[in-house]
Write a structure and sequence with these properties.
The chain is of the alpha/beta class. About 35% of the residues lie in helices and about 20% in strands. It has two domains: about 60 residues, DNA polymerase, domain 1; about 270 residues, Aldolase class I (TIM Barrel). It has a ten-stranded mixed sheet with strand order 3-4-5-6-9-10-11-12-13-14, covered by helices on one side. The protein has a two-stranded parallel ribbon with strand order 1-2. α4 packs across α5, α6 runs parallel beside α8 and α9 runs parallel beside α10.
Length: about 350
């Protein structure tokens, strides 16, 4: 019986792992940097495009590695320019990836899991079952895919369409901690994609043990999905709060702030009519966040089929923002909804 030897997805390997491969076959480690340049600077889609190494060595590489492609199951284009793709993975599982163009930047919203375990009541992804974590290649692959779609290779830094990355798509990034951090190390590698750490943001719902790890392991931006100032409200909105209540979460963030003094934490706060949008909520929110170097990002709720919530009125959102700014002297912004006509906005992703 013939055994088929499966190839390795090359996006699953760090540059050091590629160097080890070349050492093992008695080749110079600079070959890894050559491959890295072809993958992450030139953006090749087939290893056969490599033309600066010998045919014999290239055959060995092609026998060992491959560049699989994410398959598009559905593509939606919002009237505001936001693009959303439903992508099929190698095993048939599906995720959604979003690109948000703005005047001076272009942001890719990346998924880290198929489904989600958190069941946040305001989030469409939370209605899905968790199926599995994404491999590093599937995380990196989303950025590669978007860059391919936008023809965003071999451009000067000031011409690039993809400038920012947010881990705010499907899933809880800290529940896929190792693969997410390995992906970030690839994204920020100066000899490859070379994203600035200031342009990458990881959002968590409050996985306390991983926040304590993260403060040592990475200095990309941290966003925390707080969404309520009182435990009883947050227990319903973000059920993980029952495991790590607000006080415990904030204690972990104090440790984070001591270690990462130069980083400002973004607290994300969904605006839900009659749930968490009173001035009493705003007053308590100020008390919680005042000790931090932080800003509050107020997010108007984006409706999705079957949701029980309604978005707060513009008047109430502006009053809430004004109270935080004037009484708390805390930076507060209101996120402009993008792509909500194609269910591509915050809290709307769902691959069902």
């Amino acid at each position: 019986m013939w055994l088929i030897k499966l190839k390795n997805n090359i996006y699953n390997f760090s540059i050091d792992e590629l160097k080890s491969y070349f050492l093992n076959i008695d080749e110079k480690t600079f070959r890894a940097e050559q491959i890295w340049n072809w993958l992450y600077v030139k953006g090749i889609s087939n290893l056969k495009e490599i033309n600066n190494i010998s045919n014999n060595l290239l055959r060995k590489i092609i026998c060992k590695y491959e560049i699989p492609k994410l398959k598009v199951k559905k593509y939606l284009h919002s009237k505001d320019g936001t693009k959303k793709w439903l992508l099929s993975l190698g095993d048939g599982k599906e995720i959604e990836t979003v690109y948000i163009p703005e005047k001076n930047r272009g942001t890719v919203c990346v998924s880290s899991q198929v489904g989600c375990t958190l069941s946040c009541s305001f989030c469409h992804t939370g209605t899905m079952k968790y199926l599995r974590n994404l491999a590093m290649s599937e995380i990196i692959g989303q950025i590669i895919f978007v860059k391919n779609e936008l023809d965003d290779w071999r451009k000067n830094s000031d011409e690039r369409k993809v400038t920012n990355i947010v881990f705010m798509g499907m899933g809880e990034p800290f529940y896929n901690y190792d693969n997410v951090l390995k992906s970030i190390s690839v994204l920020t590698n100066e000899k490859g994609l070379a994203f600035s750490k200031r342009k990458i943001t990881l959002s968590t719902s409050g996985v306390v043990p991983k926040i304590l790890n993260f403060k040592e392991d990475s200095d990309v931006n941290l966003a925390v999905s707080l969404h309520a100032a009182f435990d009883d409200v947050r227990n319903d909105l973000v059920p993980i709060n029952k495991k790590w209540p607000i006080k415990i979460l904030l204690n972990a963030l104090k440790d984070y702030s001591v270690r990462r003094r130069n980083k400002r934490i973004t607290f994300e706060y969904i605006m839900l009519d009659g749930v968490n949008d009173s001035l009493v909520d705003a007053k308590e929110l100020i008390k919680l966040i005042k000790p931090f170097r932080a800003k509050i990002n107020l997010i108007p709720f984006n409706p999705w089929p079957g949701s029980k919530y309604k978005v707060s009125s513009s008047k109430k959102i502006n009053e809430f923002k004004k109270y935080i700014l004037e009484k708390g002297q805390i930076v507060a912004t209101v996120r402009t909804p993008r792509g909500n006509d194609v269910l591509a906005a915050c809290g709307q992703l769902n691959s069902i």
